[in-house]
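Next comes the chain:
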Amino acid sequence: MMKNARILFLISTLLALEPLYALTQGVTEAQLNESGQIEVDGHATPYLIRHLPVNSFPQLPASVQDELNRRGCLVPQTYEARGPENVVQASLERKGSVDWAVLCSVHGTSSLLVFFADGAEPMVLASAPETERLQADGGSGTLGFNWAIDRATPQQVRQAQAGMRRRPPMLDHDALADSLVDQKTVYHYYSGKSWVVVGTTD
């Protein structure tokens, strides 16, 4: 019983310190949660978008963290998030490369940034106002952020192409899955010197 009580105390302490930790990193709790109302079908509908500071992702290389902080990035979280998300490590440039993709939110606009291992300036694959990436958050009546990114292995992309009559050859390295929660997923693939969208339907 005493052990369980200590564990509960530690958990509650960590939860209580989370906003304070954000504050010590120069990010206020209010900045991490953006709320407001938008008009949907003629009605004012509330929304809530949660963000995490860059230091919530210690796995990011220091050079990537520095660039994200220089841009003033926060990382938006989908309404389904159960842990830190929208920071992805994958072999995006070529097989075996160690690259990163991040959703970066600045002043209400989210951009999909890709950092190759060579340390060059990140590429921007997509950008949109966050209020254009909202959908109903279950039965709460509040809209939540629905843009998510993830690694897509060649096998996963191949599986997504299962319904095609003429499937293209299997990819050589990872793609980047760019999704709207419970909706469409687009696969970005770096081929040679440019990005292409991989087809999943005929």
